[in-house]
């Protein structure tokens, strides 16, 4: 029997698991919920979310200043997250960090609600996969994630064997006798 050795994809979790993590966080701590929601709906790196300030939201976008590699980038702010962040930051000074936590604390919050096998970067990978499965353009995703090369972003296009099997089931073959 012929067996195809699958490429190693970045570890990601299905959208349904992301929703379960968000529900658990919401019942525990509103700040934790907003932090995890921000990670899952923006694809921000831990270092970005730690530096994230109220003044970084401009015209419905999150501006990442001096991100990885010293690059600036723009992430469109999904309206629901924008409203939630707006309420959360209402009394906050513009230069104040939104979450005022360390990278280690971000990791601990994610581990607490999702388990040790889910790292904050796993949420970034899950964001990328969800965006592509929803039909987002690869070049747009590349810019949002801050990747220098489109090749780096393309790894999210490689589907798992299970994804291929599920997509194949969607094909309508009709009946052979009808043709």
Spell out the key features of this protein.
single chain, mainly alpha, globular, 179 residues, 9 helices, hpI Integrase, Chain A, 51% helix
- Poorly predicted tracts of residues: none
Strand order of the largest sheet: 1-2-3
CATH architecture: Orthogonal Bundle
Calculate the terminal CA-CA distance, rounded to whole Å.
Answer: 32 Å
Mean pLDDT: 90
Helix segment tally: 9
The tally of domains stands at 1
Radius of gyration: 19 Å
| Fraction of residues in H or I helices | 40-55%
Structural commentary:
The chain has 179 residues and is mostly helical. The protein has one domain (15-165): hpI Integrase, Chain A, CATH 1.10.443. Helix content is 51%, strand content 6%. The chain is built from nine helices and three strands. A three-stranded antiparallel β-sheet has the order 1-2-3. A hairpin with an 8-residue loop joins strand 2 and strand 3 (73-76). Helix 2 packs antiparallel against helix 4 (79-88). The protein starts with 14 loop residues before the first helix and ends in a 10-residue tail after the last helix. The mean pLDDT is 90.
Question: How is this structure best summarized?
Answer:
The chain has helices spanning 15-28, 30-42, 46-51, 79-88, 103-114, 120-133, 138-145, 150-154, 161-169; strands spanning 57-58, 61-64, 73-76.
């Amino acid at each position: 029997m012929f067996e195809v050795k699958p490429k190693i994809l970045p570890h990601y979790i299905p959208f349904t698991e992301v929703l379960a993590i968000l529900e658990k966080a919401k019942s525990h701590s509103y700040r934790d919920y907003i932090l995890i929601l921000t990670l899952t709906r923006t694809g921000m790196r831990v270092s970005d979310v730690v530096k994230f300030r109220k003044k970084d939201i401009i015209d419905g976008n999150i501006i990442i200043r001096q991100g990885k590699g010293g690059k600036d980038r723009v992430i469109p702010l999904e309206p629901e997250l924008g409203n939630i962040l707006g309420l959360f930051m209402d009394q906050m000074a513009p230069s104040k960090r939104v979450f005022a936590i360390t990278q280690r604390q971000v990791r601990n919050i994610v581990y607490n609600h999702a388990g040790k096998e889910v790292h904050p970067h796993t949420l970034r990978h899950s964001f990328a996969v969800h965006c592509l499965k929803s039909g987002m353009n690869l070049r747009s995703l590349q810019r949002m994630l801050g990747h220098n090369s489109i090749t780096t972003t393309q790894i999210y296009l490689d589907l798992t064997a299970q994804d291929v099997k599920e997509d194949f089931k969607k094909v309508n073959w009709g009946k052979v006798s009808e043709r």
